[in-house]
TrEMBL record:
This is Tat (Twin-arginine translocation) pathway signal sequence domain-containing protein. It comes from Streptomyces griseoflavus Tu4000.
C-alpha cells in the first residue's frame, strides 16, 4: 500500500512544487485582453478560488514514478467535501481508490500483488485473499493519511499562491485559456487558466530532472461524488491484527 500512497502524494506535491517554484516573481504588465490589469499571480489566485469552489471535478494525467523511467497515470474524481474515487495505473499494476464518509477503500489488481515480491506461495495466498476485494480503513489511518489527504482538493490547491508570469493565450480542450509560467534551475511550471466563463485551472504542467508531469482538470460539477463501493470488502484491522 505504501507505494500507492507515494504515487498519490506526487499529485499534491505538484501543487506544492508549483507554489514553491512560482513564488517571488515580479508581476508582468498584462498584454492580453483576458484578465486585463491583473498580474499572473492574481490570475492564479482567482483560478484557485474558482477551482476549489467546484462541487466536483475530474483530475487526470501522468507523472514520473518513483522508479526512474516509468510513468504513473491517474484518473480521479474529487469533491469539495474531500471525497474521491478513481484509479492509479503504474507499471506494477493498478489501484482503485475511494474515499467516502471518512473511510478509505483501496482495491489492487492481481498484477500488483504478483509484482510486490515474496514467494510464489505467499503471492498466491495474497491473490486468493485480497484479489478483487476492497481493503477498508479509516481515512485518518497513518498508513494511508497521505492518499486520503490528496482527496481534499482545496488543501492541495491552496498552496498555489504566486506571482506567475503571464504567457500566451491558447486553447485547452476547446476552452480559451491563458498560460501562466515560471522557470527555475530545477523546474519549469506552466498553469493554464480558462479565460472564458469561470476561471478554472484547466491544466498544470511541470518539468523536472525526474520527468514531466501533466495534470488536467475537467468536468467541473458534472461528475458524481464518490460513494461506498459495492462488492467484497476486507477491514484492514483484520489484516494487521
Amino acid at each position: 500500500m505504501r507505494r500507492n500512497v507515494l504515487v498519490a502524494l506526487g499529485l499534491t506535491a505538484v501543487a506544492a512544487g508549483i507554489a514553491g517554484s512560482l513564488e517571488g516573481n515580479k508581476p508582468d504588465a498584462p498584454s492580453q485582453a483576458a484578465f486585463a490589469g491583473l498580474s499572473g499571480g492574481q490570475i492564479v489566485d482567482r483560478a484557485v478560488e474558482a477551482t476549489v469552489s467546484a462541487t466536483t471535478l475530474r483530475v487526470s494525467g501522468r507523472m514520473p514514478d518513483e522508479t526512474p523511467g516509468r510513468t504513473v497515470r491517474f484518473d480521479m474524481v474529487l469533491s469539495r467535501k474531500g471525497e474521491c474515487s478513481g484509479t492509479l495505473n503504474y507499471a506494477e499494476g493498478k489501484a482503485d481508490v475511494i474515499r467516502s464518509a471518512g473511510t478509505l477503500y483501496v482495491r489492487y489488481d492481481e498484477q500488483f500483488y504478483r509484482s510486490a515480491g515474496g514467494t510464489a506461495q505467499e503471492t498466491d495466498a495474497a491473490v486468493a485473499l485480497l484479489g478483487g476485494k476492497w481493503i477498508k480503513t479509516l481515512a485518518e489511518d497513518p498508513d494511508v493519511k497521505e492518499i486520503a489527504r490528496f482527496c481534499t482538493l482545496e488543501k492541495a490547491l491552496r498552496q498555489v499562491h504566486t506571482n506567475a508570469t503571464r504567457g500566451a493565450t491558447t486553447t485547452i480542450d476547446g476552452t480559451p485559456a491563458i498560460a501562466l509560467q515560471e522557470k527555475s534551475a530545477k523546474q519549469h511550471v506552466t498553469a493554464y487558466v480558462a479565460t472564458k466563463g469561470t476561471p478554472y485551472i484547466l491544466r498544470l504542467e511541470s518539468s523536472t530532472a525526474q520527468g514531466n508531469t501533466t495534470i488536467q482538470f475537467h468536468d467541473f460539477g458534472k461528475v458524481a461524488a464518490a460513494q461506498k463501493p459495492k462488492g467484497d470488502t476486507i477491514d484492514m484491522a483484520t489484516l494487521t491484527g
